[in-house]
Amino acid sequence: MLLEAHYRRLRSSPSIAKITKYTIGSVVALTTSVIVFAIMDWLRIRTGIDSAAAFAAGAIPNWVLNRKWAWKMEGRAEFLREILAYTVISVIVWAASTWATGNTQNWARHHIAPGSGLQVIATTAAYVFVQAVFFAVKFVIYDKWVFAGKSRFRAALRSRRQVWSAARANRTP
């Protein structure tokens, strides 16, 4: 009974709903990315190219699911705050995954027998690990800035400018 009431309260929380939708969107994007990454790694393509293709394959559904479903953003996206910030964050994660998977792939080629599939598993695990590390960080940045609606920073600058010009207009010569 107590557990059921707690579960009902969690389900009705907008924050929990957003986190759940973000998690589902991230799992969809990660699954897409991992499949693309593993296939390309199995084909022995360099990890930088693997990571870039996996990033592109996961970034599109991730963007759509986060923006439209988790944060319920409608209309045109703001270029600087939404598109550019999302891209910069994604490139940072891509660079980290490229670095981690490249090092793991080099290590695996020297320490794991080829043909067993373990090299692909090790390298793909490194990719998943990087995504998991950045999972919570990206949620906070998306929630507080990227998908936060109207830019509070720009509004603060505009307000400061208006106060300054209003104060100037009230001066007596």
Overall average residue pLDDT: 83
Beta fraction: under 5%
End-to-end span in angstroms? 73 Å
Percent range of helical residues: over 70%
User: Any idea how many domains?
Assistant: 1
Describe this structure in words.
The structure is a single chain. The protein is mainly α. It has one domain. The protein is 83% helix and 0% strand. The protein has six helices and no strands. α3 (47-70) packs antiparallel against α4. It is globular. 23% of the residues are buried. The mean pLDDT is 83.
Question: What is the fold's blueprint, element by element?
Answer:
Layout: H1 2-12, H2 14-42, H3 47-70, H4 79-111, H5 118-146, H6 152-169
Helix pairs in contact: 2-3, 2-5, 3-4, 4-5
In short:
It is built from six helices and no strands. The protein has helices spanning 2-12, 14-42, 47-70, 79-111, 118-146, 152-169. The protein is mostly helical and 173 residues long.
